[in-house]
Amino acid sequence: MKQYYKINEIAKLYNIGVDSLRYYEELGILQPKRGENRYRQYSTHDIYRLNIIKDMRNLGFSMAKIKTYLENRSIENSLLLFEEEIKVIDQKMAELQNMRFDMERRKEELLKTQKMTFDKIQVKKLPKRKCVTLKTTTNDANDNDFLLAKLSKEYEENLFAIANFNTGCIIDIHAHPCHYKDVLIMGDTLLSYEFELPQGTYLTLSYRGKKDQNFEHLYEMMAYMRKMGYEADGDALELLIIDVHETIDPKEYITQLQIKIKNADEKTPYCGNNRQ
């Protein structure tokens, strides 16, 4: 059995960068001998320490914590470390379980889009929804996409890009002509939020393809509201159900428009096809 190993051998054996090994040496947690030509020589003692470093790094312990443990190893300290490791593992398991639950939910939501009704005005009861926004001054979709990316960056710890279903824009339908007011993100995963979109009855219309049909569909929905005697209760919402995050094919994009309406329960809901 070899007594000493060169730095490149250790790096290959542990799949670790040579720079990391040098960094550990700078911190004093590894202390290889120097052989001929001042080459580093790692002993089995260094390998034992590297095993501990690797395990503790995988669990997310800081280098300061690792150094303290290496310099004060004892049965008592090892037991304390095990307790701390168990807590870290339990936390990681809980995080993974939450991630798995979220992925299952997103998978189900994405599958539901395959059964959506398109090009029909529908009346739906929708719950409260947490929301954050960023002001926009343009009707250019590309500019709004940039603002959405900026807003998503701010809340990235609470969001998952693929199958998010919770991004879009607020559209002022009381102005002439209608125009975008804000980009928005909404969802239960937001730990902090500006306000809640109210629960209530909404007119909705979903369509496939590029979202350049928004205002055409909005005017159609507003004409239908007048016909049915509904009154808009606030602004309209444009939600990007499927976009570039899920597919590169614009034909597979899905956009949904929503308008909250007043006194809807007094009217007869219409769910028929009003587009041929």
UniProtKB/TrEMBL annotation:
<feature type="coiled-coil region">
    <location>
        <begin position="79"/>
        <end position="113"/>
    </location>
</feature>
<protein>
    <submittedName>
        <fullName>MerR family transcriptional regulator</fullName>
    </submittedName>
</protein>
<dbReference type="InterPro" id="IPR009061">
    <property type="entry name" value="DNA-bd_dom_put_sf"/>
</dbReference>
<keyword id="KW-0804">Transcription</keyword>
<dbReference type="Pfam" id="PF06445">
    <property type="entry name" value="GyrI-like"/>
</dbReference>
<feature type="domain" description="HTH merR-type">
    <location>
        <begin position="4"/>
        <end position="72"/>
    </location>
</feature>
<dbReference type="InterPro" id="IPR000551">
    <property type="entry name" value="MerR-type_HTH_dom"/>
</dbReference>
<dbReference type="InterPro" id="IPR011256">
    <property type="entry name" value="Reg_factor_effector_dom_sf"/>
</dbReference>
<dbReference type="InterPro" id="IPR047057">
    <property type="entry name" value="MerR_fam"/>
</dbReference>
<keyword id="KW-0678">Repressor</keyword>
<keyword id="KW-0175">Coiled coil</keyword>
<keyword id="KW-0805">Transcription regulation</keyword>
<dbReference type="Pfam" id="PF13411">
    <property type="entry name" value="MerR_1"/>
</dbReference>
<keyword id="KW-0238">DNA-binding</keyword>
<dbReference type="InterPro" id="IPR029442">
    <property type="entry name" value="GyrI-like"/>
</dbReference>
